[in-house]
Write the structure tokens for this entry.
Amino acid sequence: MNDPDGASGTLLGMRCLKCGVCVFGDAIFCQACSSDELEAVDLSSSGVLFSYTIVRVPPDGWPGPVPYVLGEVELPEGPHVLAEVIGMEHADLQIGKEVRLALEPVQSGETGPTLMVYKWAPSAIPTASRQEG
Ligand SMILES: [Zn+2]
């Protein structure tokens, strides 16, 4: 792992050495076979939209616009990763659509520190962005 600050937006996961199941984030043991022989792996920074929901009532302290889209994205390695979907009209949302990881600075609270938050963005950026009233 040569990306300590995550600036390039690599998702980290754990892969089971026994059964090969891969999970997003940290894990102490394999959820599939309970083995504790896990290795850290870099996950892909793109995947396909598996499911999504439009959130109209955000959690407390939600810093972004409302409503927003919460997308569940399936990575090639298998894990599903939940994050906000940005840069897409609601009408353009489509299951199976390819998305890529995007890091956005988000301020936590009025005076809190700025955190880098991962989100999903369309993998192909349209050349001309439409502005609609
Ligand atoms: Zn396992």
User: Anything to note?
Assistant: Residues 16, 18-19, 21, 30, 32-33, 35 surround zinc ion (CB under 6 Å).
